[in-house]
Amino acid sequence: MATTEIAPYGGVTPDAAWAQEVRELARKRDAVLLAHNYQLPEIQDIADHTGDSLALSRIAADSDASTIVFCGVHFMAETAKILSPDKTVLIPDARAGCSLADSITADQLRAWKAEHPGAVVVSYVNTTADVKAETDICCTSSNAVDVVRSIPEDREVLFLPDQFLGAHVRRETGRDNIHVWAGECHVHAGINGPELADRAAAFPDADLFIHPECGCATSALYLAGEGTVPAEQVKILSTGDMVKAARSTSATSVLVATEVGMLHQLRKAAPEIDFRAVNERASCPYMKMITPAALLRSLRENADEVHVDAETARRARGAVQRMIEIGTPGGGE
Ligand code: SF4
């Protein structure tokens, strides 16, 4: 899906009247508003909860609300529906896709499995429900290494869809029987090694908070390995773990390698720290489709409802539950 060809819903200013109407409609609909860390600041601020995709799905499942409004991208709302099949799950704009989740289809995965009979399929949470249903174990960026370590050494592993996270897992486990799908997120892949090296040289005392989907994750570990940046300053973190690290670091400045919406939560969590993006252009156009107008429309019209058929949800739920049982699942993207 090329979001550049799709105009997001617009024409609404996120002022006090908007906020009041959103809150009022949410109350009438018995809805809980969830916002991913990459959402626009005004969407993060109006939400009941902000966080990473997995944390939000768990909050959705534990909530008493009968309706979940998931301000994020489509696979995240699907994951919430998989874990809460009896609740109404809305996404303010169903066109909000994800280039990483779209990089492998269930048909492609079935064909890949046929080439490697007996292999264990490990999928990152940034996948569609159909792909999760073909998966043995899902993983987050926090527990991907533990999930792969839990698989007997002699079993082949198919890891998908993110090649940078896959490279990280292969490096950490030292296994040579991991096959990695060549998918990537166009936003994270654009945060590259030379850019990181330049920023790290300009801010030598800064901590580096790096999401493992980034094109620069390998470079960050290389910089640490060669001593250009002290190893203790390099932290490979999921978005949820970045917020925790912001609260505990003693650094006064932090360079952040992930989607720029993350800066809003980090600055709220630790206002005294100078947070800077490694790449200020790293903005996800899909995430930014959840506009104030889209949220209002969602609540007024009960749209767009997310459906996952019962059998797909059952199979996908098994893979997600196995993920939660292994290591520290931490957060999704
Ligand atoms: S930042 Fe990348 S992985 Fe995340 S939702 Fe956007 S396209 Fe997908």
Automatic annotation (TrEMBL):
Its cofactor is [4Fe-4S] cluster. Pfam families: NadA. Binds 1 [4Fe-4S] cluster per subunit. GO terms for molecular function: 4 iron, 4 sulfur cluster binding; metal ion binding; quinolinate synthetase A activity. Its main location: cytoplasm. [4Fe-4S] cluster binds at residues 98, 185, 284. Iminosuccinate binds at residues 36, 53, 124-126, 141, 211-213, 239. GO terms for cellular component: cytosol. It comes from the Bacteria. It is found in: Cytoplasm. Its EC number is 2.5.1.72. It is an enzyme of class 2 (transferase). InterPro entries: NadA, NadA_sf, Quinolinate_synth_type2. Pathway: Cofactor biosynthesis; NAD(+) biosynthesis; quinolinate from iminoaspartate: step 1/1. Catalyzes the condensation of iminoaspartate with dihydroxyacetone phosphate to form quinolinate. Belongs to the quinolinate synthase family. Type 2 subfamily. This is Quinolinate synthase. The gene is nadA.
